[in-house]
């Protein structure tokens, strides 16, 4: 690549007319070396440059903002002194029509408040450092409060915190009348309830300024706010409450680390700003660009918002820390800074080891690093040795940060992936990142918990915020009881929105807590929690933890151990509910949170794949996984039976190709049911017109055979041989195994263990015989449509089924996500227009190439990612690759992309797999068309947006996205419920409940593959397809939607061939003009559907005129 670039540079110089080729400059050589050694391509480097130019604030914009902000700074620097009040006397706040942005509990506190003008006002943060982003742009303004504003004891019992809040109110009172200020509001800085800030939206720049208050750095001793000091007394905080306060000194002076760190951040705000300013000096533009890339990366992963987030300040400080350690230097490019920072993040442990600017070993006046590690989850100490930047950061957030950093490095190391889009463009929302989402909805239980002795000190330290007080213990407990079942646990960040300056601040206003779990595929669904042996010293602790659930059990290896059994002979559906069983029981036991307050949305989503209890009274159907296994076992039995017989033809192999073999059948059959009202014909039943028999699907299997002697030379001979071999096979099976079999010239229907298999014989010469002669090359043949279909069915589909079956066995969630996707497709009337195999391939890609996520191990996250993929992929300009077994080489992918750019023979939805190289994107070559693809994308976008919103609120009915509106249809045909072939499969099932018994010792083959609605749909399309489009849900037989083709309402000249369904248009100025006779068409539909149609509803009567 470097040689190529140099040649391009040289040729450019010659074109310019220069006789001597000028060698590249040192800067150019540096760029070329970086591209060759570090980055994938020059395109990746160009994309980073373009991204930086898009997200950075332009010079003109900066000048405009600085000019506007300067007005605010001037006003703040010239404010007059105010009157003196007691801290409890806040009537002056009400007189100004304002509210204090702080929850003041308890309400009484000693001290006075007298507003003094700021000693200085400065712009701080990322704006002066030139590391801010356009997105969410704001300017941080530091207002320094003079010494005379404070008293020496203001560090105690929230005096400083309340004075700070009142100072903000005083600033708001002065600014609300300024003409250049458009809007004033309060919010908590990074969700810290101790740290309200004032947000001023300036009229000129339309950007916001965040006003921060801080004292003179030297006013309070830093050691006063050491994390092991107590600055809030229990006797004061719990005065007037029912909380019991112990009088001994040990409890009265318990440390308040969070409270102390919150004040220290204000005290040291200037020092930390100066440290960043020195590290990111004027000539280190690449370092600043690297920080901007890191901020974009954090933003796309939602790691920088809410309480306890990894803020832009923390990541900037970490870059400065790496500079100090000389792991970064100012000569590095922005990409090198980005990559090196992620590498160090992924390989450093801030939880167990901690990091610090301060040398704790050589200087003894600050707390030790070990004491910080013991007091906080995550440790990153500043240069003074007293402030922990990450005091609010949980260990779970840091582990998630490390995990994302490792994943990003893997993506950067890959070669055949669009790294730039995956890392910097693709959004990674919370609900798509985790396998399981669950909510705790009872906030009152948490409020009561926070007043218990166990949490009283935490509640005091967090200023009465019950969630922040209880949350660390709650998360540690959940992680402990789930242990090896989960790899990551995280709570959705608590984001505090801004509120008007005249409104009360939010306090304990959360409606629920939302958690995400990344499960361990090997252990997550284990129904047993195995403990230590009965005589082990840990046995007592295990029994106490599981609170009566534990019991002694003897295992196969002879050991007798404590164990907890959660479920007895469960289906996979119930196994996936084991997280609910464990969490609800344990939280109710230890935290008094009722089980009904624990909500797992996945249960609601997966329930659409269940059947009513009446469908299988003897065994639990669950979500059908066990039924799929039953079909596969029956197929294995059939394979063994056929291998035990000998016929003229050589049977090489038997392979199933139906979706059930790929774990992709939406409702796998439990077995054939009795049809008492059916009529008998030969050795099979035929349906009765009185009552629709229960649907019995056929499972297709291919029997690969080789002929004896010379291959047939024509199709007629081959078909006769095939019929002969099938007849011979049937007789052998009936004679030896007494199987119920129905004979057809092209296949056999065989009943094995209540499953009907459709066995087809496959001969290799058949594909060649179906080919057509080449139009221009004599002696050569090309594929006809028939030969292509046979090639796909007999050559490609068995291999594809084998690969996808293996994927389903490796990842149990694969089949579940495929079936949810197909069910979603069906309810939106798209099953007939989107090939089912295309859906299976799209879902497979989520498991084969999951980046920037991990492989989905939960139904909701997998389904969300499927919707995201369908709705965001650029189908118009790119082919979609599903690289099964990594059989595609880089050269092959590049060639297909090059051919695709011409776009002469590629379908609208191009899905390429290595198995169909002979005909690229065979499975989507005919459908969907562009219109249906656009509809698919639109519905996927709407469903994705709706589902993501509903996942946040536990009371939401997630089935909403599976209930489409019938409003778009011009006509809706309602069908009779007694003609439902598959009752119970509708989203809101209201069909019949009398399920016939399963077959036992049948003499005839049951009615197979019979669905009246599908036959009626076929008749409608054949009869009225030129007039309308017909849509229905494949799994719900209740309605058929009809859309008139727009062109049919244009009057046409009279022709005999056009008179069907037409009438004369009397209002036309021309004679003998025809228009559709809607009344007659509707009547014909009723006649055509006699016995199955309940009634037909026409949307508007205007179509009948």
TrEMBL record:
<dbReference type="InterPro" id="IPR035082">
    <property type="entry name" value="Nrap_D1"/>
</dbReference>
<feature type="domain" description="Nrap protein">
    <location>
        <begin position="811"/>
        <end position="964"/>
    </location>
</feature>
<dbReference type="GO" id="GO:0006409">
    <property type="term" value="P:tRNA export from nucleus"/>
</dbReference>
<feature type="domain" description="Nrap protein">
    <location>
        <begin position="431"/>
        <end position="591"/>
    </location>
</feature>
<dbReference type="GO" id="GO:0032545">
    <property type="term" value="C:CURI complex"/>
</dbReference>
<dbReference type="GO" id="GO:0003723">
    <property type="term" value="F:RNA binding"/>
</dbReference>
<keyword id="KW-0539">Nucleus</keyword>
<dbReference type="InterPro" id="IPR035368">
    <property type="entry name" value="Nrap_D3"/>
</dbReference>
<dbReference type="Pfam" id="PF17405">
    <property type="entry name" value="Nrap_D4"/>
</dbReference>
<feature type="domain" description="Nrap protein">
    <location>
        <begin position="139"/>
        <end position="278"/>
    </location>
</feature>
<dbReference type="GO" id="GO:0006364">
    <property type="term" value="P:rRNA processing"/>
</dbReference>
<dbReference type="Pfam" id="PF17407">
    <property type="entry name" value="Nrap_D6"/>
</dbReference>
<dbReference type="GO" id="GO:0032040">
    <property type="term" value="C:small-subunit processome"/>
</dbReference>
<dbReference type="Pfam" id="PF17404">
    <property type="entry name" value="Nrap_D3"/>
</dbReference>
<protein>
    <recommendedName>
        <fullName>Nucleolar protein 6</fullName>
    </recommendedName>
</protein>
<dbReference type="Pfam" id="PF17403">
    <property type="entry name" value="Nrap_D2"/>
</dbReference>
<dbReference type="InterPro" id="IPR035367">
    <property type="entry name" value="Nrap_D2"/>
</dbReference>
<dbReference type="InterPro" id="IPR035371">
    <property type="entry name" value="Nrap_D6"/>
</dbReference>
<dbReference type="GO" id="GO:0034456">
    <property type="term" value="C:UTP-C complex"/>
</dbReference>
<keyword id="KW-0694">RNA-binding</keyword>
<comment type="similarity">
    <text>Belongs to the NRAP family.</text>
</comment>
<dbReference type="InterPro" id="IPR035369">
    <property type="entry name" value="Nrap_D4"/>
</dbReference>
<dbReference type="Pfam" id="PF03813">
    <property type="entry name" value="Nrap"/>
</dbReference>
<dbReference type="Pfam" id="PF17406">
    <property type="entry name" value="Nrap_D5"/>
</dbReference>
<feature type="domain" description="Nrap protein">
    <location>
        <begin position="287"/>
        <end position="427"/>
    </location>
</feature>
<dbReference type="InterPro" id="IPR035370">
    <property type="entry name" value="Nrap_D5"/>
</dbReference>
<feature type="domain" description="Nrap protein">
    <location>
        <begin position="615"/>
        <end position="807"/>
    </location>
</feature>
<comment type="function">
    <text>Part of the small subunit (SSU) processome, first precursor of the small eukaryotic ribosomal subunit. During the assembly of the SSU processome in the nucleolus, many ribosome biogenesis factors, an RNA chaperone and ribosomal proteins associate with the nascent pre-rRNA and work in concert to generate RNA folding, modifications, rearrangements and cleavage as well as targeted degradation of pre-ribosomal RNA by the RNA exosome.</text>
</comment>
<dbReference type="InterPro" id="IPR005554">
    <property type="entry name" value="NOL6/Upt22"/>
</dbReference>
<feature type="domain" description="Nrap protein">
    <location>
        <begin position="966"/>
        <end position="1096"/>
    </location>
</feature>
